[in-house]
Design a protein that fits this description.
Elements (H helix, E strand, L loop, with lengths): L4 E9 L4 H15 L2 E5 L3 E3 L9 E10 L3 H14 L16 E7 L4 E2 L4 E2 L8 H10 L12 H7 L7 E2 L18 E6 L5 H11 L2 E4 L8 H7 L1 H25 L7 E4 L5 H9 L2 H15 L7 E6 L2 H11 L9 H16 L5 E6 L9 H12 L7
């Protein structure tokens, strides 16, 4: 997964429908840049440094895997999209929307186009007051003072009025509260680990990842499938059973739900493809003895990916032992999953075709998948 950075942004508007301008900007930031964690109150403040209509100002906390310069470029694009026209006049002027990066964690950047921390932030109450709502303890990496301390010592005599109108956080539109345990499944290379990890990070979920990398039989299986198939499948079954049993039994009061990048039933799907008749019959008996003891997911999401894209993803992640997986093997796995899901009645199943989606690099695709998951209607109990 890409490293995420926490950004602190200041937003202002004093032309047109000022509240709508702020809300539209926040929506665009959410769609194009990253996950909005929190939004301050809206304050009415006098124009700073020039005569004009009052501003509506707010601040927000944003997490994004984009670099600061990329974030700035997108903020400038959003300003233009919302109707801001920059003139050649020197000094301040009225504007439909103004978007600034105030802080980016403890980063210090000083280039021709970008300065972080914002060089004027400590002098402006219309930045410090809303920022204090959502990040009072955050430290200024140059001045060595918290936002609360900077506000207390700020010389700006402007009088700001908090407004009794609240901006909506678009990130809250994706409601996972109806599920306590979601399993994300898919073929080899479908992106289930990437999606599970991102959902867990963005929506405060406990993450359970399959420990395939620790299995010493996996590289051997890809070299000699007939010899190592039974050993591999038994080791996977034992490890998956142990991990799911332990992780699901450990209550985490600080997490809202659980998301896993696999469901134990994959053991039976893969073993049906890799094992011979007698071996599979024995394996199936052992599997169901263990499976009936395990908690089932409230929602089972299957990421369907075409074989060509699976192969591209497999090559991109570069695991040596996976580089010679045959198309026929991937297609058999996909068929096995779909046959299982067609007959499944124990939990809710959502199949999402991600063949033409890149939810790792393309935020719009990621948000589309979130909508697909959270808009799913549970079967009646």
């Amino acid at each position: 997964m890409l490293k995420t950075t926490t950004y602190y942004l200041a937003l202002g508007s004093n032309k047109g429908d000022k509240f709508k301008n702020l809300q539209d900007a926040i929506q665009a930031i959410h769609e194009q840049i990253g996950n909005v964690l929190s939004i301050s109150k809206v304050y009415k403040s006098p124009a700073f440094g020039f005569e004009s209509d009052d501003f509506f100002n707010c601040c927000l906390v944003l997490q994004s895997d984009l670099k600061p310069q990329h974030v700035l470029d997108l903020l400038l694009k959003i300003e233009i999209d919302l109707g801001r026209v920059r003139t050649q006049k020197s000094g301040y002027e009225a504007r439909v929307i103004d978007l600034d990066i105030v802080l980016a964690e403890a980063e210090i950047i000083n280039t021709e186009t970008l300065q972080i921390p914002h060089p004027e932030m400590s002098k402006r109450k219309f930045v410090l007051l809303p920022l204090n709502d959502i990040a009072p303890k955050v430290m200024h990496p140059v001045l060595g003072k918290s936002i609360a301390e900077l506000l207390e010592t700020c010389d700006d005599a402007s009088v700001l009025e908090p407004l009794k109108i609240w901006l909506k956080n678009p990130s809250k539109a994706y409601n996972f509260s109806k599920y306590s345990y979601i399993a994300i499944e898919g073929n080899i290379g479908a992106g289930k680990t990437s999606l599970s990890t991102k959902i867990a990070h963005d929506y405060n979920a406990k993450l359970i990842l399959e420990r395939f990398a620790d299995n010493p039989f996996l590289p051997k299986f890809y070299e000699d499938g007939a010899r190592y198939a039974f050993t591999l499948e038994m080791s996977f079954l034992a490890d998956r059973y142990q991990q799911i049993s332990e992780d699901l039994s450990q209550l985490d009061l600080f997490k809202d739900f659980i998301v896993s990048d696999y469901d134990v039933f994959k053991s039976l799907i893969f073993s049906k493809i890799t094992l011979q008749g007698d071996e599979f019959n024995l394996y199936r008996k052992l599997f169901y003895l263990m499976y009936k003891e395990l908690r089932k997911p409230d929602l089972y999401v299957y990421l369907h990916q075409n074989t060509e894209q699976l192969q591209q993803n497999i090559k991109k992640r570069g695991r040596d032992f996976e580089q010679n997986i045959a198309n026929d093997y991937l297609e058999k796995i996909n068929t096995g999953y779909l046959e299982f899901l067609k007959t499944q009645t124990e939990f809710n199943v959502k199949i999402i075709d991600v063949s033409n989606r890149d939810f790792v690099e393309n935020r719009a695709d990621y948000l589309w998948i979130l909508r697909e998951i959270t808009s799913f209607t549970k079967k009646p109990v």
